[in-house]
């Protein structure tokens, strides 16, 4: 006789408790930036003037466009690189991150996203060629020395930094197909000049911040609106043609104004921009060194105070008391003035002994 297996009561089986995990939302609706981030950019917080920042954005996008043409990339890849470039510098500053290196990283990243891969070596050589042409220097190939290896490493790190700052949300929806589809709906699919001019306006709009402010449908309608006004083509008004695509006239006019402002700007001088950025970099490095020196002086002065348990820290494996105090200051994101004020209050009371980790 075979042994019977005991029946398992379903009520006795405990249900597994599902742990709540965080989720990452990747959609085309979370790529638009609010007005406060568009105005208070990291570059302006570092002391850069708005016109200088705009010129750097225009110059960076022009470099990406020119490099894409020389690398024979599709226009979609060049547009993706420019959008990524614009997004990145709303998260980081031009003062702290090189514009050329970031532009090269955006070209490499866009070529991977749009499945038109280009080698980093080719991208570096193309940017080197563009710099020589812009500076009107004799064209010479780039020497594969330590400088080239260091530059290649910087591009790889910059590409990772772009991915990190954008949260790996690198999908971009371009208005190229939307322009074609909208013109087909309006009955102008055979007007090649109308379509080409709309595409040209759209490609020029990549140098502005309209892709950070409005969705692709609005940008496509604005490009069609500008082309129709330039060519004298009448579009339906009653009802308005853009209402069919759920776009308001106010948004269209704002996009048109931002695109037309690009044509009124003077030609960007790369040398002058580089000098301005270098001056801001020097000021940033000086302020950084001053803060570091103030922290070291602060830590050295606090080492001899009665409330700093230096022997206890050394027994615990801390060899450099000053570095430990600096680490605690940076860890708690506190200011030196606040900590010094608390230290004075503690020193006045000789009976109180407070360990360093509470500062």
Automatic annotation (TrEMBL):
Gene3D superfamilies: Cyclin-like. InterPro entries: Cyclin-like_dom, Cyclin-like_sf, Cyclin/Ssn8, Cyclin_C-dom, Cyclin_N. Keywords: Cyclin. Residues 173-298 form the Cyclin C-terminal domain. Transmembrane segments: none annotated. Residues 62-164, 177-261 form the Cyclin-like domain. Pfam families: Cyclin_C (PF02984), Cyclin_N (PF00134). GO terms for biological process: regulation of transcription by RNA polymerase II. It comes from the Eukaryota. One of its GO terms (molecular function) is cyclin-dependent protein serine/threonine kinase regulator activity. Belongs to the cyclin family. PANTHER family: CYCLIN (PTHR10026). This is Cyclin-like domain-containing protein. It comes from Rhodnius prolixus (Triatomid bug).
């Amino acid at each position: 006789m075979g042994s019977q297996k005991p029946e398992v009561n379903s009520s006795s089986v405990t249900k597994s408790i599902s742990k709540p995990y965080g989720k990452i939302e990747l959609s085309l609706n979370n790529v638009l930036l609010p007005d406060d981030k568009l105005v208070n950019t990291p570059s302006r917080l570092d002391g850069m003037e708005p016109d200088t920042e705009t010129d750097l954005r225009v110059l960076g996008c022009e470099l990406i466009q020119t490099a894409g043409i020389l690398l024979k990339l599709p226009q979609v890849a060049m547009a993706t690189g420019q959008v990524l470039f614009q997004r990145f510098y709303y998260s980081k500053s031009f003062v702290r991150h090189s514009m050329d290196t970031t532009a090269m990283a955006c070209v490499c990243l866009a070529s991977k996203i749009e499945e038109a891969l280009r080698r980093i070596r080719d991208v570096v050589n193309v940017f080197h060629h563009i710099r020589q042409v812009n500076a009107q220097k004799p064209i010479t190939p780039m020497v594969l020395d330590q400088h080239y290896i260091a530059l290649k490493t910087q591009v790889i790190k910059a590409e990772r930094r772009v991915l990190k700052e954008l949260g790996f949300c690198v999908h971009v929806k371009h208005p190229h197909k939307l322009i074609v589809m909208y013109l087909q709906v309006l009955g102008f699919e055979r007007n090649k000049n109308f379509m080409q001019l709309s595409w040209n306006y759209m490609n020029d709009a990549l140098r502005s911040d309209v892709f950070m402010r409005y969705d692709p449908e609005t940008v496509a309608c604005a490009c069609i609106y500008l082309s129709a006004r330039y060519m004298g083509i009448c579009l339906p008004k009653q009802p308005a043609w853009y209402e069919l695509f759920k776009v308001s006239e106010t948004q269209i006019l704002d996009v048109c104004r931002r695109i037309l402002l690009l044509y009124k700007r003077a030609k960007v001088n790369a040398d002058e921009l580089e000098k301005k950025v270098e001056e801001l970099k020097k000021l940033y490095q000086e302020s950084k060194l001053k803060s570091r020196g103030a922290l070291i002086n602060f830590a050295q002065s606090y080492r001899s105070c009665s409330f700093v348990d230096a022997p206890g820290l050394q027994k615990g494996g801390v060899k450099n008391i000053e570095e430990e105090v600096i680490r605690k200051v940076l860890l708690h994101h506190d200011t030196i003035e606040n900590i010094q004020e608390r230290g004075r209050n503690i020193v006045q009371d000789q009976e109180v002994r407070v360990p360093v980790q509470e500062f």
